[in-house]
Amino acid sequence: MRVSDHVIYCLPLSLAFSLYLKSPLPGLLCLASGVLIDVDHTIEYVQAYGFNLGCLKKLLIATQVKSKNKKISDFKKMYLIFHSLEFVIIFWIIGLATKNLYFISAISGYSLHILLDFIGNREYPRFYWIIWRAKNKFLVEKILRVEINKEQL
Ligand SMILES: [Zn+2]
Description:
By secondary structure, this protein is mainly alpha-helical.
């Protein structure tokens, strides 16, 4: 899913947290966590292109993992460390245990991001488990529903 889509979908939730807690900080935490977790795509980007800023558009494309999308074929592996349901579960356990509403605001944005990617990217449901991706050595050809041109790998 595109970064701009995450901003659009996360804004109402962020606004709700800020209004409910009467502070801009929870909304900003929600929005930041709901958008910035895509920063983990930089690992694949740097592996494929190095620190070449000329390929920055490809980094934005990399955030749009879609079925049958050959645009991501430059990537051999996708780690996507932050795109993990394990973290969602751990963070919610911590958030509910501490009842810290600022932390819960951040987790909500984070969870919304994963949910939107889950719905929008239409990958294998197990794709969002980092343990499953690790079991498959993070290989794009195993973890994504994509047709890959092997010559490009
Ligand atoms: Zn994402």
